[in-house]
Amino acid sequence: MALTGIQILKMLPKKNCGECGIPTCLAFAMKVAAGQTEIAECPYVSDEVKEQIGEASAPPIRTVKLGGGDHIFTTGGETCQFRHEKRFENPTGIAVLVTTEMDNAAVDGRLERFKSLRYERVGVMLKADLVAIKDAKGDAASFSALVKRVLAEAEDAKLILISDSPDNLAAAAKECGERKPLLFGATLANADAMAKIGQECGCPVGVKGQNVDDTVAISEKLLAAGLKDLVIDTGARTVRAAFEDNVLARRAAVKSKFKPLGFATITFPCEITDDPMLEAMVASVLIAKYTGIVVLSDLQGDTLFPLLLERLNIFTDPQRPMVVQEDVYPVNGPGDSSPVLITCNFSLTYFIVSGEIEGSKVPSWLLIKDTEGLSVLTAWAAGKFGADMIAQFIKKSGILEKVKHRELIIPGYLASLKGELEEELPEWKIVIGPREAGHLPAFLKEWKAAA
């Protein structure tokens, strides 16, 4: 059961030192209780208290990490059943399946599509996350060889190793080094061996149940053996059963705090149907209803892209605007005589404006001011896009060293700021740009001709 802020405060040293970045222990305790900071941020709390509070304040669905270094995939960590209650935390992982029975061309094709099917949208790179490697022959040598091949050819892939043999999984896991894979295939029969391998390798283990009851029994056995990081498969191989099991597991974990089901689920649309289009539709249902990882038989642009967009929409925090970093962005290779434009850091505004500038073919400097994700008029009304703030940003942005002229193009909706900006930036000429981004190409061409 989660602890309240007052309960957490009683376990703190109450120094009010502020070394955690929060002025008082009470405020710190409240933030820990709300999940806004970690108890480990307090430098004076004991390890025993850290463990006690960390366990009590942990999300009902355990957070599990795969991979290593700069390439980490995180699943689980969910705290609610419906997104409008708070938000969903970690996007569903999309995996492509390769097996030891596939010929080289089939494996090459899947790995090539894994690396090439990537799309940038509103500043986010959309792509598949994992490669599932199946020991279809039950042969340790061919399994390890395929794992080494994937490691070499797909450097940012996080791995799922699938085998009925704990020994084969152990041998393949050793090839992965610091890139910790998910070891999938724990059953009631091999749970003890899988728990030992998972602990020795420091890898999460995948539960391979036949139904929900069997999955619970395996999870309890692994938990009793000291293994904490699990991913569960209830064995459902129809879309209805998989849907129902995902809902049941999420409800049991979130509403009833039932630990044996308090883990992210892994589902296999690739085993539910042989029809690629139907497989994508099954995956779309499971992404919407709680699955942590979906494993697809292949990746194709016409089916992968809609799944990536669905995932983006579901896992975008509705309480937090999407933003781009405050900076100076060159568009079309600008030089020291190129026009300078400024706008807010709401991601949609940035991508629309930068897209229109790019389409104009006019080399330009685009200044993006941090407005906490608010659009131009909203930011101005909220006092986050005023003349003084723009002037401060201009002076510290480095644009003065990039251009010889002193002309700044502001959005047409900020025309009322022209006088104030000229007072704040007396050496600059303030030019009022168009209100709509769609008029920028013509405006920039006229500016270039006049210059």
Automatic annotation (TrEMBL):
Keywords: 4Fe-4S, Iron, Iron-sulfur, Metal-binding. GO terms for molecular function: 4 iron, 4 sulfur cluster binding; metal ion binding. Residues 1-59 form the 4Fe-4S domain. The keyword Iron applies. InterPro entries: 4Fe-4S_dom (IPR007202), Ac-CoA_synth_d_su_TIM-brl (IPR016041), ACDS_complex_subunit (IPR051069), Dihydropteroate_synth-like_sf (IPR011005). This is Acetyl-CoA decarbonylase/synthase complex subunit gamma. It comes from Desulfurivibrio alkaliphilus.
